[in-house]
Amino acid sequence: MAKSNTFQCSIVTPEKTVLDCEVTSVVFPAHDGELGVLLNRAPLVCKLGIGRLHAESPDETHTMFIDGGFAQIVGNRLTILTEQACRPDEIDTEKAGQSLTEARAMRIPDDAAYTARDKAIQRAKVQIKLGRP
């Protein structure tokens, strides 16, 4: 039985469901580092960070850019709610490079601006890295 070691994974953005399939493992960016999920994981809710999601299914591998949000794991079902999720072939690396240049040039008069600049830089770097073949 090939399906006995799988669990359900759904990735949802405000616009659409990006992924909804059976997987054997998922690694995604939590706010404080990467988190891996396997079958029968204890229930968990966590804040997501910016980074690469890697999901293994019996038939294929899914790699995606994730831009914050929340993840919930309950009863062998992982649900990821995120502002943005896209596959590497959907990333415009030229636009990401331009965003990186703009982010590095941002003024940082206060803590909120520093945080926004840091997230913009991180977002652009991950997109550039994932978008390259």
Structure characteristics:
ATP Synthase, domain 1, alpha+beta, eight-stranded mixed beta sheet, 44% strand, 2 helices, 133 residues, 2 domains
Characterization of the model:
The longest helix has 21 residues, at 111-131. The protein has two domains: 2-86, F0F1 ATP synthase delta/epsilon subunit, N-terminal (ATP Synthase, domain 1), CATH 2.60.15.10; 91-131. It has two helices and eight strands, in the order ββββββββαα. The chain has helices spanning 93-104, 111-131, and strands at residues 7-12, 17-23, 25-30, 33-38, 44-56, 61-74, 77-81, 85-86. Helices cover 25% and strands 44% of the residues. It is an alpha+beta fold. The mean pLDDT is 93. Strands 1, 2, 3, 4, 5, 6, 7 and 8 form an eight-stranded mixed beta sheet that branches.
